[in-house]
Design a protein that fits this description.
The chain folds into two domains: 106 residues, RNA polymerase sigma factor, region 2, helix turn helix motif (Rna Polymerase Sigma Factor, Chain: A, Orthogonal Bundle), CATH 1.10.1740.10; 79 residues, Winged helix-like DNA-binding domain superfamily/Winged helix DNA-binding domain (Arc Repressor Mutant, subunit A, Orthogonal Bundle). By secondary structure, it is mainly α. Helix content is 69%, strand content 0%.
Amino acid sequence: MPCLRAWAGASLALQPMKTARDDATLLEAVARRDEAAFGELYDRLSRPVFSLVVRVLRSRPEAEEVLQEAFWQVWERAPDFRAELGSPFSWIVTIARRKAIDRLRANARHLRRIEEAQGAREDDGLVAPAALESLAADEAGAAVRAALARLNPDERRAIALAFFDGLTHEEIAVALRAPVGTVKARIRRGLLKLKPALARVRLAPAD
């Protein structure tokens, strides 16, 4: 698999077109796992794609991450490209735009959850019923739900935000107005208390 980080450091200047392969030809080569073609396609299109992504996200660091994610998807999905449905550039822009919008939605959800946590009562565990229902529905799942209910509110809130909402330790610290070290300690203590119940849960194999 190609190294995007190496290509990211290369010049992004548009190449002269008189000897260059067109985008469709490059993408066909990428579908055959031609890393050189992928590098050329990245160098040619990453600048305009990045410009679009940074306009959506208004953050260069996040736009750089989304750009890399988008081109990884191009590498993985190149065999799915159909020229009759549009140009390679339009296809890649669509991938990048969707990923940028997904990032915006995730950021908004995180911010909303942080705000909810900041306004919650001290005895509110912040574990949504739907999240609990997502646990195993059998006897082992019931044991996990019961074990969560027995945690103290601080531990339950920290674990809920970390594992049901996917917040980072830093985001949880902001939400709970507590030092990051305290948040980590609460999660660690809570997980130790949950360990016997979690050991009983058998996850279904991935499809």
